[in-house]
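User: Teach me something about this protein's shape.
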Amino acid sequence: MLPALAAALAAASTVDWLALPIASYNSDDGLAGGAVVQAQWVGKVRPYRAAIGAQVLFSTAGVQSHYLRLDVPRLFGSPLRLWVGAEFHRELSAPYYGLGNGSSGALADHPGISGEHAFSYGRRFPLGFLAFSLPFGTSGARISTFARYLRLTIDPYPGSLLAAERPPGAEGGEELSYGFGVLFDRRDHETVATRGYLLEAATRGSVAGVASNHSYLGGTTRALGFVPVGSRIVLAARLEGDFLSADTPIFELSRFGGMEPVEGVGGERSVRGLPKARYIGRVKALASTELRVRMLDAKLLERVISFGLAGFLDTGRVWQLQGNDGSFFDLHSGAGGGLRIYKDEFLLRFDVGTSSERAVNIYITFGNCY
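Assistant: First, the predicted structure itself:
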């Protein structure tokens, strides 16, 4: 199906593609190697007629992250947008520091917990997803719906915090989740926005017994804003909140929902500077601001490539709603800066973040943080 669609699109539009070997370092996942390919069929449809992305990635920390994704903004010429994908992920050291905003990564605070993997566990899962969105006129409003299936295998390490606490979902299992959302998108571009805003409200959940081991219900709200300052500077900001019902499995407690799920609080797309998923809980909140400066444009391999710098401040917190969440302003923050290399909707991001919990965190990835 995908090759046939690609051939039809190539005949009708220009193909803009990028293929890169990956040799990078991430403070959470170690030294990584692999390859990523992205192809966009550029035509009269914004941001493109279709895009296919594929990645094969292995890291020295035992991480595997492989995917094949297709995005068609106007399916068969209609206003309906389609996303479909298949993925496989594996981690030998997925983080677990406990639940709530006051969780500790110090062994002294956890009597009986010991070993090299005191605050981690092994997990692996194949994942498939299907999503649609439908716009209303030219206002930027659209509704969205999605379905996602995964089969999670969890391997707690002896002596670890996860083995001791056994939160809901620690046994792994399957999950078929589905959701619905409303978006209002007035950005001028999706990946490298220079003006406008995006507002989103979305729900998600699963029902035990319907290809799922657990039942839960969740909701997410998100607001992004982009303000140009002259022709080369953009001030970007984000506010995001997420709520989950009691007994939600551990896999969801570390995720924000919506059409673009984010792992956190902590990591390359939430609070840069904190360890990945350092704080998890039933209620999560994020706030970020970023100053983006386009420094220069250069012609490389017959393409005009832009180079930019960014400075950022991220903060967030969680609530487990068990009476021990602390004061409202018990925030966990990170700050830093980085380099951006981009063309149209392609962007390569190099960020360095710092926080009180880890002095240096390095992130090399595709796409802006938001």
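Now, about its shape. The chain has a mean pLDDT of 91. The longest helix spans residues 2-12. If you'd like, I can walk through any region in more detail.
User: That's plenty for now, thanks!
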